[in-house]
Amino acid sequence: MLGPVILAASRSDKMRRFVSAAPGTKQVVDRFIAGETVDHVIPIVEEITGRALEVTLDVVGEDITTVEQSHAARDAYLELVGRLKELGLGERAEMSVKLSMFGQALEGGHELALANVRPVVEAAAAIGTTVTLDAEDHTTLDSMFAIHQELRKDFPQTGCVIQAYLFRTEEDARRLAADGSRVRIVKGAYKEPASVALQDKSEIDKAYVRIMKILMEGEGYPMIGSHDPRLISIGQELARRAGRKLDEYEFQMLYGIRSDEQNRLAAEGHRMRVYTAYGTDWYGYFMRRLAEKPANLLFFARSILTKG
User: Fold this and answer.
1) Do β-strands 131-133 and 159-163 pair in parallel, antiparallel, or remain unpaired?
2) Contact between 215 and 177 (Cβ < 8 Å)
3) Burial letters for 1-15: b for 16+ Cβ neighbours within 10 Å, e otherwise?
4) Can you tell me the distance from the alpha carbon of 239 to that of 245, in angstroms, rounded to the nearest whole number?
5) Which run of H or E residues covers position 285?
6) Which candidate in 134, 172, 273, 288 is catalytic?
7) What are residue 58's DSSP bridge partners?
8) Residue partners of 181: CB distance under 8 A and separation at least 6
9) 184, 273, 288, 289: which one is catalytic?
10) 92 an active-site residue?
């Protein structure tokens, strides 16, 4: 039951200040965040891809309040694309973006986010990679899917994310699976009301399996975002039943979590992508990671007590 409390705290400025100032925070943040700048993250990308893994890169910082900040977010991703091009990593590293960071929640935000994300998608395509649009809370999804559809007219490889705990997601999955797009499925990491989302973990897991089945039997490219050994095993079996080859779907896990399992799946021939976040505005991302797994929260609490 701690998850909803932590997710509520992720929106609290008071909690942000407390967590940021806690003496053990940096040790735990470093587990999930690959650094603050592109110079910090590039060596990590090289290390990960050197282990036969792939990467998706997220510049954290969705809580923006000005148009200027949305342009800065666009420019941060364009800088990242330039560095990936210099190092020849385009085919091994894609990018994940949150449209809120590109201005989606501002006045005229739908058009602003589309205008900001398009040059990033175009630049990514020019170096042989792509962009996946991350899912955020349910109020943003119609805009996200509309932007996804618009981008795919010129860049059909553009991906998107769906969340298993939302009631709408099975219908979204059927539409996307028939559309030939790249779709990442995750359980969901935002505080959502019972009117729009499942609240029970076992029911969310069941929905996740149903949606994986839809994606595996469809025409798109499924990306299974999970650290759950049981769901990963079920995903492998569903892929086998659907007649998919190993390069016709992939698994994704977060940087800093279950590295041994990431290596094992890659060694078996699976495509394994590591979701790697970096940047200075790490608080919201960090709190969602704590909410997803109680062990992460216990690790954080022990670090604070040890360093305090």
Assistant:
1) parallel
2) yes
3) eebeebbebbeeeee
4) 8
5) helix 283-292
6) 134
7) 96, 277
8) 148, 152, 156, 158, 159, 160, 220, 221
9) 184
10) no
Cite the DSSP H helix spans in 35-66: 38-49
Is 184 designated active site?
yes
Encoded tokens for 253: 């896990």
- The C-alpha atoms of residue 120 and residue 78 are separated, in whole angstroms, by 6
| Residues 48/276, Cβ–Cβ less than 8 Å | yes
- Residue count (the chain): 308
Q: The tokens of 40 are what?
A: 């910090």
**H/E stretch holding 57:** strand 54-59
Q: Distance of CA 156 to CAs 22, 77, 211, Å?
A: 44, 20, 22
Per-residue pLDDT of the chain (308 residues; tens, 9 = 90+): 445 544 444 455 555 455 544 555 556 667 788 888 999 999 999 999 999 999 999 998 767 899 999 999 999 999 999 999 999 998 899 999 999 999 999 999 999 999 999 999 999 999 999 999 999 999 999 999 999 999 999 999 999 999 999 999 999 999 999 888 999 999 998 889 999 999 999 999 999 999 999 999 999 999 999 999 999 999 999 999 999 999 999 999 999 889 999 999 999 999 999 999 998 776 666 666 666 655 555 544 444 444 44
Look up the pTM and report it.
0.86
